Amino acid sequence: MRSIWRTLGPVWRRHIALLCLADAVVGASFGALAMGSGLPGWLPVLLSLVVFAGAAQFMFVGILAAGGNPFAAVAAGLLVNARHLPFGFAVREAIGHGWLRRLVGSHLMADETVAFTLAEADPARRRVVYWATGMALFVCWNLGVLLGVYGGTVVHDTDALGLDAAFPAVLVAVVLPALRDPVTRRAALVGAAVALAATTVLPAGLPVLLALVGVLFAVRWGRAKPSPDGSGVLP
Amino acid sequence: MTSTPTLVLAALVLAVGTLAFRLAGPALSSRVELSAEVGRLMSTAAVVLLTALVAVTALTQGHGFAGVARPAGVGVAALLAWRRAPFVLVVLGAAATAAGLRLLGLP
């Protein structure tokens, strides 16, 4: 862990630290919200350790808190997490080989980890970025949730702090360089439009998956390339 | 309220299912050798999914529009990122814009 942190360099360390801070606050709000809805305190902690996927956790707890069926809560959570399937194919080289590495590395997969990893052009450094981001987020997210559960009302309203804008902002900063490639950009814009249209009628999770329709446009009109210089906001 | 064993079971089923989604790519890669073309498509698919995630989380809440503050915050972030502003500034700019607009009474 220490050698990974050193290899990372100061710029990536700063990016990851900031991401960690934002995620810890969101984690704290998740813990507080779960407690506030009358669910037992161990549930948000258990979910954060074994599921480790923010959107699915919010959905799972939200459905249970509304008096929903546990089957519905599991199904909704799985629907939201289905996007990790293509993520796994995209970052498999960064995770590495060997069953233990694959098992642990896969568990650390998160939107931000995948986005950071794909923003790094060098394959060897991709591995370092993936593992450092994954481990740091796992620790910060779970500490945040603990704080929310046992600190109670540390964070009342993350929306008042504008934190609901922070998550999409992180992803914007990270995917923007990849969107400099015209083929990828066309695919992404078509996908985003499809997802937005579907959001008005379909349950959460499904619209984002439907965005994969956009990939067909990358196949149809030329091959997708990584961004030419691999540079952008991130190193 | 749902019983404790049911809650534990539900959390574990969600955990195992999620891990299965995550593990499929890395686990299959030792048996299935993906061509460079397919590998590139997978990266494109990840970027497409992340972009859609940005659009949906920035603009919508439930089945409707998210209001003004959050999309404005993300818009400021996109502008800052496009101008290659430091990452810290991009994230803080988004949060500050959204928080500021809400302070002014915008949803």
In summary, what is this structure?
Chain B: Keywords: Membrane, Transmembrane, Transmembrane helix. The complex is a heterodimer of chains A (235) and B (107). Chain A is mainly α and 235 residues long.
Overview of this structure, please?
The complex is a heterodimer of chains A (235) and B (107). Chain A has 235 residues and is mainly α. Chain A has helices at 2-8, 10-36, 42-50, 54-65, 70-81, 84-95, 99-107, 111-119, 123-150, 166-175, 182-199, 206-210, 213-220. The longest helix of chain A has 28 residues, at 123-150. Chain B has 107 residues and is mainly alpha-helical. Chain B has 4 helices and 2 strands. Chain B has helices at 4-28, 36-59, 69-82, 87-103; strands spanning 60-61, 64-65. A two-stranded antiparallel ribbon of chain B has the order 1-2. In chain B, helix 3 (69-82) packs antiparallel against helix 4 (87-103). Classes of the chains: A mainly alpha (235), B mainly alpha (107). Chains A and B meet through helix 2, helix 3, helix 4, helix 5 and helix 6 of A and helix 1, helix 2, helix 3 and helix 4 of B.
